[in-house]
Amino acid sequence: MRVHIIGGLVLLAGSVAALAIARPQDVPRSGPPRGLPMQMSFSEEFDGRALRDDIWRTAYKTCGKAGSIANRSLYGNRERQIYFDRDFLGAGVQPFEVRDGKLVIIARPLSPSVKAKLDGAIAKQPPDIRGSALAQVRYSSGLITTKCSFEQAYGYFEIRARWTGGKGIWPAFWLLPAKGGWPPEIDILEAHGDKPDTVFHSLHSKRQKSITRKVTMPGTADQFHLYAVLWTPETLDYYVDGIRTASIPTTADANQPMYLIANLAIGGSWPGDPDARTAMPARMEIDHIRVWRFVGPPAAVRRP
Prior knowledge:
The protein is 5% helix and 38% strand. By secondary structure, it is mainly beta.
């Protein structure tokens, strides 16, 4: 697996605005808009045989440790999945496949034996967790983060990905503060499986009401697309296939180093739960994750 780190280095939206973007004529080019003084600071091409555990974590809030069951789902969103890895609960559930230069995150219904292990673990949690939506979890899935391995403030953050459709399928690529706490949160990509031509870009902040931009994209989500954000102290400019689709002002609390998260959630208050037409297993396929940093002060950079 080739991983490069260079230079040392959901919660519901308040307002939603729809935008449509043109269909590109050529194969989209990876990377920031031409003419910007930037250099690559992180590149994951998934060309090995497994996730590299010194880079990727598989639970929220952890720095290489297994993480408690409460760190393996955003149950406040009433999500129906728990994020597994092969070792979690000794259940042998593996939601990750690395093959042909791509990472595949797989979501499946829980088997009776795995559900029994999960219920036993939940029963040992404090009352507020035992009584949460974790009790209604019905699927396994996967999450990867670079918490404690890679973080960066400002730059161009990009994923090339696709996913299967159906109600309740909720893929995402997003950023959280390296120092902890929430908000802020920068959502580069979120999608609902039953809206195959739509993606959402968002900023959540303590300083203002959350903002989400709803974007109609060329093609559909079962095709590979590039999803990115150009983050400066002034603005968050979002891109799909190299075309700028939205811009949101950067809030003061979002001006801090953040780490990367990619995950496949299932169900929840926002996308709704899977129905009889949702095909399982569901998949999110990631071709690459790349980050560029500014050469020089980002505040001096303007969009071409």
